[in-house]
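From the shared-data thread, chain only:
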Amino acid sequence: MPTQSSLPRILAVNAGGVGNLHGLRARRLTQALPFDVTVVDIDRSSRKAGFVHMQQLLKDSWDMVYLESTGISAGLPLLQSKHRYIVSSGDPVAGFFKVTEGALQGALFGAYEKQLYRRSAGFIGWTPYLTGRALELGAPRAVTIEGAVELERFRHFSPEERSSVRERLKIPQENLVCGLVGSLTWVARQEYCYGMELVETLKYLKRTDVTMLIVGDGDGRARLEARLSADLRSRVVFTGRLPENEVVEAMNAMDIGFITQTLDALGSYRLTTKLPEYLACGLPVAMSPIPGYYDYIGEAGWALPPYHPARSTFHQKCAAWLDTLSPEAFPTKSLQARQQAEKHFDYAQVRQRFQRFLTDLLSASS
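Structure, as tokens:
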């Protein structure tokens, strides 16, 4: 058996901020690997402090640096160093800033993104579309490692358990529950945040047995609540932010999990981090018709209308679909959902892919 000191030294850096999904992913992917791994979170509350922290880390000797997320407070020091590194991302950097902040910001961060990928030893894409894009930008090696899920924790509840959760949330047992889990952050440029699609769709529904369940918090919540008339407020349940075990419960209270993305240079490349969790809970998914819908949902859900989720056309067509939706399809789609989670998003499988990729890059360097 090799000693601890003889193992390759890996610095795993979460550049996405303390306590977020990127840090969880970095820890789970490197868990129990045959390397000497140090996992560090970069605090994003101060870009300057994060930059200095990363510089200090890079003074040490590492066989490889694994950068999870593309934040510049960690990425710029890497570009200035001589360390070999791999970078992992769930977003197209240029597309994100172009869509959310404008063309100039998109161009500036696009130049940074290109250099970060070209100088890397390899790229890890959360979707195959991001992986292909990184290769086009100059990444020398690449692999797709999707966001994953703990299949034991995220599971499909029994009818009795589901009934109990609905009772606690004060949702009528017989209602069709459409829901989502996400950050309710208002994006001024698009006049949108997650949850708007559910609130606005509710206004066009003819049927009255539908409850919208919105899990999460942010500055957009007050805007969503203000959009509800008095007669509709009882049909929307806002839970606020929940601990993970209660998120599993909330997902099991839903009949449909909504995943909306914009069909543009940002949304078309993404898979929301909640997709694996919805599927693992046996929750059928209604998803915008981005590539990920066709590659990962299959018979486990439905394609949403191909419009921006803040537009009235989207809401009207969603309502027309829900008005005719029969509950008979749910048992089969629920079974398919769990099968898709086991096929694509099992941590045990994606961790092995990560280990093979990292091992090959380390062997090449030696």
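The chain has two domains: 4-148+346-365, 159-344.
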